[in-house]
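Dear support,

We are seeing what looks like truncated structure output for some complexes. This example has two components. We would appreciate it if you could run it in full and send us the complete token output so we can diff it against ours.
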Amino acid sequence: MKNFTYIRANSVKDAVQRATNDQNAMLIAGGTNLVDRLKVFLDEPSQLIDISRLDMKRIERTSAGGLSIGALVSNTAVADHEDVRRDYPILSRAILAGASVQIRNMATVGGNLLQRTRCPYYYDTAFACNKRQPGSGCPAATGINRMHAILGASDQCVAVQPSDMCVPLAALDAVVVVEGPKGKRQIPFTDFHRLPGNTPQRDTNLEPGELITSVIVPPVPFAKSGVYLKLRDRTSYAFALVSVAAALDLEGDRIQDVRLALGGVAHKPWRPTEAEKFLIGKTANAATFQQAAEIALQGAKPLIHNSFKVDLAKRAIRRALTVSAKGGGVA
Amino acid sequence: MQHKKKGVGKTSRRGFLGRVLTATGTAIAAPSLLNQAAIAAKDTSQSNLGEIKMKLTVNGEQQTLDLEPRVTLLDALRDRLGLVGSKKGCDHGQCGACTVLIDGQRVYSCLTLAVMQEDKAIVTIEGLAKGDTLHPMQAAFIDNDGFQCGYCTPGQICASVALLDEVKRGCASVVTPDLTRPPQLAELSEAEIKERLSGNLCRCSAYNGIVAAVQQVMGQKPPSPAATVMVKEPQEMLT
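Here is the complete output from our reference environment:
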């Protein structure tokens, strides 16, 4: 690890100012992803600005009846919060499906959104990588790519966003609140992360000097029946091959509303809006869910080693919707 | 290498190795233990190279250290404070051998910087026993053969100690059927224990003994049938 200077920010404003003044500075909070990246020289900041002691550690009810979750709340604290467990079990379960207790104790909400892909070619500086060094090439596209994207990729980058927490946050239409040199602004969750296109080096739409201060989750009453299904190479402590966040709002067996998002398949949490539109007004049954799954994966472009993900994702959608239709719980 | 408080007048394993290897005069190809000790000594002799003074509270004792900000908590514990119980397995937060408790919560000490943990209460495996009396979890690991080579054991024990506290506080896991009704100690299933300890790998695969040790401390008796078979009656399995 290259050495750096270390400073503790004493306010959000102070952190923004320091990050704006020194473009080679980086913010650190939980550090679970950043410290690892520093060790392998993926990031070589001149300065680390420690924001971990700032006052962004509260979970509060919003006037609209949703939740405002501070950027520095630990993943564990979100998953274990009474209101989250009761009103958004879909969010609790997604967090608990990710990483290990140790990581979740350290990792923050803001950091979870900003973690970078675990594409092995990105992580290994001996390889070219357009995300690390724009224009150098993408060995993953023709290399070992069973973990990689099947939706929304470009010829520049086939990496996936690895978060579990972000999948239900996308499904729930959460909002990311950020503060930067030009003040505060809100970014709809589905616009926060980017598809790789021709700029795979940019994971998110955060501008230089901006930091996340909180995430607002709107009230979604039927999120109580939401489920998170994660499929991976081992039962626990592994990134998703495919994951699904699904929640159905049923009246009898008629679908009033639905939320659906996929993880492990794209450069951002993937919201199959056409499949959602199809489901509304339909009868909740196996045939409907199958059709929705087909629509959701219509644009899939699998790589050499990951065509299995297409069928896996369809089956996962069917299963998640079926369990949600029965009231939710463990998928 | 500084062995503060510990090891004074005693023969530590590392000190013994160092003396033996020096005495035999052997040029060892990769004596990683010796290398680490030498590097630590060199670092402390070269002061003011971007080092900052920090106060860490480890196992109830306050320690003042001059460290570069890039030094991880794990390296500070092992190489500066001589607390070599916490192990460096992968150094990337994938194996759990470096697990310690910070303000009562288990974390990977390899993934945090020492300087970020000022003013926090850090507890390592060395801080669990009271004098010569082992922590009940340490005793249970011995009772149930919760290890073979022992390398992952300090991390496994710290994680298991935290697990018990988490269950008492009502923490849920991904396999908890009803999140609003998390399991109590007496009813924590084997699936729950395994899920909650999935952040600690054991390449000797002593998992059955580890689960049995946790069950013993939770007051669940007898340990699970699988653990009983593996630990107590290996012959039966072979016949």
